[in-house]
Amino acid sequence: MSNNTVILTHAGADFDAIASAFAASKLYPGSVVIHPGSTDINAQKIISLFSDILNFKKMRDLPKDFFENISRIIVVDTRLKNRIGNGVELLKKENVQIVVIDHHPGETDIENAIVINKNVGANTTILVNLLRLKKVRLTPIEATILALGIYEDTGSLSFPSVTSDDFKALEFLFSFGVDMKLIHRFTSPFLQEEQLNLLKTLLEKLKEYNLNGHKIGITYADLEKYIPGVSILAHKILEMIDLDVIFVLVKILDTVHIIGRSVNESFNLTEIADTFNGGGHPTAVSGILKGESIDKVTEKILEAVNLANFYSLKARDIMSSPVKTIRSNATIKDALEIMVKMGYSGLPVEENGEIIGIIEKKNVEKAYLFGKRNSSVKQFFSPKIVLVKAFDNLRDIEDKMVNEDVGRVLVEHNGRIVGIISRSDLLKAYKFEDMMKEIPRSIKTSQVPDKKYIAKVIENATSKETLKLLKEFGKIASSLNIEIYLVGGAVRDALLGKKMVDFDFVTSDAVSLGKKLKEKFNGTIEIFEETQTVHFVFNNVNFDFVTARREYYIDKSLVPVIEKATLKEDLARRDFTINAMAVDIREKNFGILFDYFNGYDDLLKGIIRVLKPLSFIEDPSRIFRAIKYMIELGFKLSKETEILLKKAVEIGALFSSKSERVQEELRELIVKDEIDRVIQLFTNYGIIKELFRINNITKSTINAIKLFYKIEKSAIKRLYAFIFLTYLSKGNINEEEVNRIFGIKKNEILKMKEAMETFKNIRRIFKKEDLASVVLKLNRLELIYVQAYYYKAKGIIKKFLKDYLEKLRFIKNELKGSDLKELGLKEGPQYRKIFDLLTILRLKGEIKNKNDEIKYLLDHKEEFEWK
After folding, report:
1. What are the phi and psi torsion angles at 324 (to 5°)?
2. With DSSP H G I counted as helix, E B as strand and the rest as coil, what are the percentages for the chain, rounded to 5?
């Protein structure tokens, strides 16, 4: 059956064409955008950077049967056949619907085409406003890509062709969070002739300095009069030249005007501005110096920059390490399983201990599609390897990816491959680079209690038997020359005066320790050499041992990559400072507290603080864990952590995540007794809006949830009731969305949906149908949803539901299927109808027992089918 939709646009595609094609793909879900073949330089950069999002396909990458099953062709940003790029030949196909969406004037020369045309500044505007009418949801980066099309084709809304529709489209896009920094990087206003001449002079006199690994540019011009727009030229130079900071010096008579610009707030220029009596913002400063030469001003700036405390993300900061590889002789099936499980879009291919190339997920999928699942990876990989240095900045990495047209680069340091960076890593880094300034550059060390105090704390937090066991662990570790530390939540709880329940240990060799424990104790012990972990159960107490490690959560944070590390590095991978403390339990050192991240001080102050800016992105479940600690411990987030949490929610870290860990943490929060506090925090941090696409949950819904929780202690029933009541107030439920967010099976969601439809129309049903029919409808629903809705209902409906829950739901027919069969009734759908009929008659009081039911069936024999 023909049902494929393809999207075409013009050759030499610009931002508007690319954005239009992408918008059309959102308008027609499941459609395929054909790469036009040629694009302008900036458009190609967008396609390369956001290839995983845009997902443009080349004709040769699609199977033949795809083209045989095309039912619709969408042409965007052109109406002329000779302007269309790759795929134009598809217009010759018969029995295909052709839709042209274009903002240019004139007639189309494409035969039998349906034309959608509007006089607007950008073609993207037409499609975005259609998305707005269809209430299509977008991610911030999707909204930004679409906004780029509008900004470019309207000259940043400065062209005479701009209409109110263009503004409406942008308003819609901004509701999802357009990134104006990305917009600015790819668009800019036109320059006048005198500005162009000055720009040429500044570029000719530009000198580049490499100070402390940062690229600083200084240029100058002598002018008779000031030319407006020098700040725009400074921005232009940053866009054109690979610099972190630019200073433009313009001398007029005896005064030097200084304009400073930086690529982001990691290069804070405000302190440097003091050098020339200036001021401004972290990324934009200006000032003047009188009676100084250009050379003298340059010298002062260089001295200030050399002393500046700049900080920017480098390749080493954002790379995933160690590099996960796949053997060259592994099968395509193996590769796809790893990619799906780990959320990878590509894997380095290894042979004889060396990386020989990269295999992309799109090539794996294509091979799989053509029945090559058992073929070796080596047949489909690309031998192209692109390297960056460990200290390269984000723009160095971006340029390598764009210029080499690759989706990932390997990080090299001292002749070794030490990490890998994907496009998604780079995009996350750009989002969060600005937030680095929110995290303290250094952590002040505070006084921690001595080992005698900590030893007493540990003693008070556990039983005598368990304490004896802890000390025995320490003795065994000492005898093996192994370090061992009690870490994480156990240390936190002990310091809070709580009993320790779970015991986690970091050691320098968990496997060797585990083998010794197996010899000495009779408990249940499992040793996992691959992950360097040991699970030990003794007297119904769980003890987990792990070799000191560092973890990197790659992309979707499904499974961590693990390697050996120091204690400090192991603790650094943890979620919050209060969980990143360790206590040495070896005999001579028992009670020594290791607190590298000031966790003890945060514990005393009741503060939850992440250890690094990307923490919530690497593992979005930490968002819910932070809220859990706020509720359970009565703590608050540090200012920096709150900013980072909100930012992570804003960019869609939760909604895009399919991690089971995220789902588990979310479900655990939702079923808490303190549900009103959970909802309040979810609302404050934008989580309600992100998860449910509503601004808040109504007070009546919250009250209904609280009342239901008072009578129901089952976690799963609480969860189902919460989701049901929340989506009921919203008015609709999306099966895939609920499944992705909460991990609930679709058959249960369908039951919720059925209950929602019933209760949305309950007043109409109640007025239209008799009591017995209403009871029958409710009997078909899961009882939990009737109980939940009871606390939401009001007036006569609430009274009726009370009767239903207490009495009416128990009134049912006694005859079973076997009874009907024995009576001689023909099996099939009529059994359900008979049971419904008998229940209605019982509710009406017309029959009272099983004998009455049999009598009724025999008296009305002609109404039923018999054998």
Report:
1. -80, 125
2. 50, 20, 30
Count of alpha carbons within 13 angstroms of residue 777, beta-carbon side: 17
Beta-ladder partners of 289: 256
What does the CA dihedral 166, 167, 173, 174 come to, rounded to 10 degrees?
A: 160
CA distance 221 to 230: 11
- pLDDT tier at 502 (50, 70, 90 boundaries)? confident
Calpha distance 45→64 (Å, rounded): 29
Reference 24, options 109, 126, 117, 121; nearest CA is 126
Give the SS3 label for residue 228.
coil
- Beta strand segments in 64-164, E: 70-76, 97-102, 113-117
Residue 560 has pLDDT above 60, yes or no: no
Three-state secondary-structure class, residue 241: coil
791 and 704 Cβ atoms separated by less than 8 Å: yes
At residue 703's C-alpha, the angle toward residues 702 and 706, to 5°, is: 85
Determine the 3-state secondary structure of 346 from DSSP. Answer: strand
Mind giving me the DSSP string for 480-541? Answer: TT--EEEETHHHHHHHTTPPP-SEEEEES-HHHHHHHHHHH--SEEEEETTTTEEEEEETTE
Our separate counts of H helices and E strands in the chain read 40, 28
Residue 137: CA atoms inside 13 Å, Cβ hemisphere, count?
12
Q: Contact at 8 Å (CB) between 618 and 432?
A: no
Classify burial at 779, counting beta carbons within 10 Å of its beta carbon; exposed 0-12, middle 13-18, buried 19 or more: middle
Distance (Å, whole) CA 637 – CA 858: 72
Residue 559: per-residue pLDDT: 47
For residue 597, the one-letter residue type is: F
Instruction: Give the integer Cα–Cα distance in Å for 485 and 594.
Output: 9
Cα–Cα distance for residue pair 523/534, rounded to 1 Å: 12
Over residues 320-338, the pLDDT tens digits come to 656 778 999 999 988 888 8
Pair 343, 555: CB distance under 8 Å = yes
Contact assessment for residue 570 and residue 550, using Cβ atoms and an 8 Å cutoff: yes
Q: Please give the model's pTM, rounded to 2 decimal places.
A: 0.53
pLDDT digits (tens, 9 = 90+) for 74-90: 999 988 887 798 999 99
Question: What are the b/e assignments for 127-161, b being 16+ CB within 10 Å?
Answer: bbbbbeeeeeebebbbbbbbbbbbbbbbbbeeeee
Decide if pLDDT at 479 tops 60: yes
CA 717, 718, 724, 725: dihedral to nearest 10 degrees? 140
Number of residues in the chain: 867
The mean pLDDT of 225-242, rounded to a whole number, is 78
